[in-house]
Amino acid sequence: MKASDFDYDLPLELIAQEPPARRDGARMMVLDRAARTIGHRAFADLPAYLRPRDLLVVNDTRVIPARVFGRKAKAGTGGKVEFLLLEEIAPGVWDALMRSRRRPKVGEQVILDEDLAVATVLEDGDLGRVKIRVESQTPWLEVLDRIGQTPLPPYIQRKEAHPGRRAEDKVRYQTVFAREPGAVAAPTAGLHFTPEVLDRLAAQGVGQATVTLHVGIGTFRPVSAETVAEHKMDFERWRIPLETAEKVAAAKAAGGCVVAVGTTSVRTLESAAARPEGFGAGQGRTDLFIYPPFDFRMVDAMVTNFHLPKSTLIMMISAFAGREFVLEAYREAIRERYRFFSYGDCMLIL
User: Is there a contact between 220 and 154 (Cβ–Cβ < 8 Å)?
Assistant: First the structure.
């Protein structure tokens, strides 16, 4: 199977640049896998499709303001440096991407914005990857919250963004159930949920549970291999609490559906199920790549946004709903002028 098998033509004007006025104001395409039908609803109609005993599983990762800027500390240079923090691999030590006209060498220091912290380059790798140590007198996450910017995907243009616009992105590019800091991209299907929608689901007997998967740079990385099987996923950290594992088991036993909110929740649940000991509470790092054919063990339905052509995410939903059916749905979404990608509309696959 080739990456080109998951390609489609998307008019650029359908790439959402702004979130809807209300979180729950998006449109929702409904795919019924058994009947092979496509329906058009609003996201606020989601409760109509779920039943008592069903379980909604959301990813509670929190996007950190991972884009930070600074200047070289070396006398006489002062060149600008940009870091995209990817993962804290040891206390104060980060895997990151670095951009600079003249890259600082190993051992050089970068003074970060407002002089609140210093980053020292420990290792210089390929494709812009570096390892840095960050030191600050104030706790680093507090500093980061003050000087960092939200790492929006490259298809959302924010050149010369007004500070007020960046502040809005900091709120809207974050789910209402975000709790655990560590992601560099939002689990975007979760952006549509509001406390009111969650309350309506709970009132009708739909259970709710959380998993954590810290979304990494692999979300932005395209599939460059010609053959799908040759692509290697980046590792991402995941965790399933005992309470969630028990709720999943109870929903399955009661004949309910496990409804994963977003591809990150799908990947977490299916990664746990793929362990030798089977599904249960735990944590780890996963490089699971889901593409057709794939035997889904845990997920019965999913809420997901519309994804980039030839991406690992459209491959995942093609494994769930069938490649031809998914591409047919995407063609209809384009005809119906749905809004695509992170700030766009969504899809419910039953």
Answer: yes
Q: Residue 247's domain spans which residues?
A: 3-63+172-349
Same domain, 257 and 178: yes
Q: 28 forms bridges with which residues in the sheet?
A: 41, 346
Task: Characterize 204-242 residue by residue with b for buried, 16 or more Cβ atoms within 10 angstroms of its Cβ, and e for exposed.
Answer: eebbbbbbbbbbbbbbbeebeeeebeebebbebbbbbbe
Same domain for 203 and 324? yes
In the chain, what percentage of residues exceed pLDDT 90?
87
- Is pTM beyond 0.90? Reply is yes
| Per-residue tokens: 48 | 């109509």
Mean pLDDT of the chain: 94
Which residues lie below 8 Å from residue 259, measured CB to CB, with a gap of 6+? Answer: 50, 54, 55, 56, 57, 299, 300, 301, 302, 303
Residue with tokens 């809807």: 20
| Residue 161, amino acid | A
Half-sphere exposure of 288 (CA within 13 A, CB side): 25
Instruction: With respect to residue 167, please indicate whether it lies within any of the assigned structural domains.
Output: no
